[in-house]
């Protein structure tokens, strides 16, 4: 049993393979949080809660005269209230009929059952491996007539606990939910560092580590998406923790819209983490008896460093978030025409790219922006999802047939949630755009947001998109989303419900995605938001892969993919080889290096393959066959960050099969120095006793061959024990050219 209720002590203990989480129902029926961390016994750990009478920290009426040490202001709790004596960041705030917002939750019962709860209309982890149990813990505020049901999904083998919350209006009059967090996690006395991930367009997910000091530390998004500006995730760890030692907690939100993550270290050094929908643009009316479902969050813990924590999340996202046939099947190596042609193409050009690519082993051609409506630049046409037959020179059915006749699958780009002012859709339905009456809207890439909180808008998109997918037998959709939302107003909602627009917009987007997957169960959807601007586990429930960044420079990608790897698995990260000089940075890099970096993602190409030389085409062919050979290790193996791109001259990362049979070590020199010191690495995840060979995957066309001594180390024949490779380690061969990349295959013999 992974969930234990001790009736006598009134504790509920959640056990995973390597972690324990405990709560305790106390004498006032407050549900206290007593522990989350390394696996331990089922003792009542509430003894660790320090209680003394503290000035300015009041006491609940029922105990004030008996025990002044009892204060909601200092007790660690499972779900904090508002305005009733706990002055820290709060989990929930509800406007009642009398104008007050007070909330105080108390235990009212619980249920434990096998399997995993689900959440209506929202993405959530699922269990098809017989791993999960659910705890549904009911808390009530009987004075305010509000119920909160806290859901815990305990995935024992996966070492993960998921959380979600349902809020119910039990009262006789409407209430407005102003804040409802999905997670409230109190740490008792732990000294912590926090790692968050900031970014911007083309620079997503840069890790930043800082000590959690007193006060409130907060990140979030009010942009209508999870955003590249802050990833909806956090790692909390021991100040001494590193990749391979120390305590590390990982928390990530299964939600793609506005979020707020607050971390408060309080006056007695307890730390509270609160994560949920961002309250700024949120006000949700609940009529009597109505329910609001808050999205899910994923929690994991490792006592063995940040790397193991990352791998717990990777495995979990791969197996319990990503769904459908593409969860386990090998994803196609694709070529996308965006950086190859931009808007400048016709049907013949597309077919010639597909044909050239097919001969080299590419498995899918993706037609990017510009195939529909009036769309020869990014100022018009969004919303008119009708193929531009004049530009294509044929119908979309015919184009689909011609592309497929070259031997590849066919994918196509949409930006469903946007509309151009210069489009038939906008001219016909100006009220379908998100704009505030009487205010000129902010434009971004000259586009407006389509109001997906409206069912008629959702139905329009489902119809247009399905028609195209059906007609051209589309195998893959790139679902793009290229702006942040502001000027929020839905022409279909009454004024008192405008605070619901943003979340309803997200629910609408999820509904359209679900409808497409229901009608086309084999469809592979790749998410995108000007690159990795909506890169979260919520999208991954529908889109098994997401374009990692519009920045395709492999040296920049080292940092982006490094940051991404803390939370998200390689199998979700769209990554392509593009032309050199790079279109975002102008940097010139070797083709083999570009291949190595793109292979640490869902591999593909994004360039005009017709323009490549014969040698370059040979190298493309070689890369694709290497990728196919190494696929299972790359996409499903454990991931290890062996050096960081931020303070080394060489970024080294490794993927190793879970059973240790094979590992791939990738290294890219991102700075050159004369007479360089060797870069040493110790491999991870091998079997100590097993014997391995090391093989260098060499690209033809190196400027100078390796010297024979170095060559001999990686000859693919000499045997090394797993223990030696993990303890003594080895050096990365020196570079022979700028931005040299190496790929070393370590195989059990
Ligand atoms: C966004 C995407 C790109 C490309 C363009 C097309 O920027 O991130 O990959 O699809 O839109 O307009």
Characterize the structure shown:
This protein is an alpha+beta fold and 749 residues long. Helix content is 20%, strand content 30%. Strand 11 and strand 12 form a beta hairpin. Helix 11 runs parallel beside helix 12 and helix 12 runs parallel beside helix 13. It binds alpha-D-galactopyranose. The site of alpha-D-galactopyranose has 12 residues, from loops.
CATH superfamily of the domain at 3-320: alpha-galactosidase from lactobacil brevis
Q: What would you say the CATH architecture of the domain at 3-320 is?
A: Distorted Sandwich
Backbone shape: globular
Strand content: 25-35%
Q: Would you tell me the overall average pLDDT?
A: 97
Radius of gyration: 27 Å
Biggest pleated-sheet summary: 9 strands, antiparallel
In CATH, the topology of the domain at 3-320 is named: Beta-galactosidase, Chain A, domain 5
How many helices does DSSP assign?
A: 15
């Amino acid at each position: 049993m992974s969930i234990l209720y001790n009736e006598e002590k009134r504790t509920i203990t959640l056990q995973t393979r390597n972690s324990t989480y405990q709560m305790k129902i106390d004498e006032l029926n407050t549900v206290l949080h007593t522990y989350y961390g390394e696996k331990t016994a089922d003792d009542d750990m509430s003894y660790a809660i320090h209680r003394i009478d503290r000035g300015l920290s009041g006491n609940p009426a029922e105990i004030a005269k008996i025990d002044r040490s009892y204060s909601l202001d200092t007790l660690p709790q499972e779900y904090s209230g508002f305005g009733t004596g706990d002055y820290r960041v709060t989990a929930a705030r509800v406007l009642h009929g009398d104008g007050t917002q007070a909330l105080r939750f108390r235990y009212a019962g619980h249920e434990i059952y096998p399997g995993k709860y689900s959440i209506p209309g929202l993405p959530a982890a699922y269990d098809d491996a017989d791993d999960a149990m659910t705890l549904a813990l009911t808390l009530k505020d009987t004075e305010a007539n509000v119920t909160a049901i806290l859901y815990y999904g305990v995935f024992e083998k996966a070492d993960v606990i998921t959380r979600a919350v349902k809020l119910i209006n039990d009262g006789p009059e409407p209430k407005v939910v102003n804040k409802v967090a999905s997670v409230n996690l109190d740490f008792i006395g732990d000294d912590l560092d926090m790692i968050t991930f900031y970014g911007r367009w083309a620079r997503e997910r840069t890790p930043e580590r800082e000590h959690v000091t007193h006060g409130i530390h907060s990140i979030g998004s009010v942009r209508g998406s999870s955003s590249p500006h802050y990833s909806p995730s956090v790692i909390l760890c021991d100040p001494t923790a590193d990749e391979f030692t120390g305590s590390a907690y990982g928390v990530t939100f299964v939600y793609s819209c506005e979020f707020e993550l607050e971390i408060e270290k309080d006056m007695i050094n307890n730390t509270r983490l609160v994560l949920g929908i961002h309250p700024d643009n949120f006000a949700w009316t609940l009529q009597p008896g109505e329910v609001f479902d808050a999205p899910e969050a994923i929690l994991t813990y490792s006592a063995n460093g940040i790397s193991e924590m990352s791998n717990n999340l990777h495995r979990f996202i791969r197996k319990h978030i990503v769904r459908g046939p593409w969860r386990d099947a090998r994803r196609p190596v694709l070529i996308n025409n965006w950086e190859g042609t931009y808007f400048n193409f016709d049907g013949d050009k597309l077919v010639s790219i597909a044909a050239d690519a097919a001969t080299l082993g590419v498995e899918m051609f993706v037609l990017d922006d510009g195939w529909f409506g009036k769309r020869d630049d990014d100022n018009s046409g969004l919303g008119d999802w009708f193929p531009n037959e004049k530009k294509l020179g044929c119908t979309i059915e015919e184009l689909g047939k011609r592309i497929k006749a070259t031997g590849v699958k066919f994918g196509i780009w949409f930006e469903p949630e946007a509309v151009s002012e210069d489009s038939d859709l906008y001219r016909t339905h100006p009220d379908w755009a998100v704009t505030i009456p009487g205010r000129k809207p902010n434009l971004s890439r000259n586009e407006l947001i389509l109001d997906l909180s409206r069912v008629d808008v959702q139905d329009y998109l489902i119809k247009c998109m399905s028609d195209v997918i059906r007609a051209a037998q589309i195998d893959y959709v790139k679902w793009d989303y290229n702006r942040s939302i502001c000027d929020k107003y839905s022409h279909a909602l009454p004024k008192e419900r405008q605070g619901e627009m943003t979340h309803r917009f997200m629910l609408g987007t999820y509904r359209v995605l679900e409808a497409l997957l229901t009608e086309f169960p084999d469809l592979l959807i790749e998410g995108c938001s000007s690159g990795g601007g909506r890169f979260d586990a919520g999208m991954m429930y529908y889109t098994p892969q997401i374009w990692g960044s519009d920045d395709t420079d492999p040296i920049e990608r080292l940092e982006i993919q490094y940051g991404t790897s803390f939370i998200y698995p390689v199998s979700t990260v769209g990554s392509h080889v593009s032309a050199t000089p790079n279109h975002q940075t102008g940097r010139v890099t070797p083709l083999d290096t570009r291949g190595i970096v793109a292979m640490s993602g869902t591999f593909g190409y994004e360039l005009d393959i017709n323009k490549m030389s014969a040698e370059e085409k040979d190298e493309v062919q070689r890369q694709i066959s290497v990728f196919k050979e190494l696929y299972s290790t790359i996409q499903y193996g454990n991931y290890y960050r062996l050096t960081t791109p931020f303070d080394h001259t060489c970024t080294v990362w490794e993927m190793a099969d879970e059973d240790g049979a094979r590992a791939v070590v990738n290294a890219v020199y991102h700075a050159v120095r004369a007479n360089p010191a060797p870069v040493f690495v110790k491999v991870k995840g091998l079997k100590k006793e097993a014997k391995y060979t090391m093989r260098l995957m060499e690209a033809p066309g190196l400027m100078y061959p390796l010297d024979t001594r170095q060559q001999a180390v990686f000859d693919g024949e000499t045997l090394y024990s797993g223990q030696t490779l993990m303890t003594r380690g080895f050096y990365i061969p020196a570079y022979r050219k700028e931005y040299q990349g190496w790929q070393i295959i370590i195989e059990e013999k």
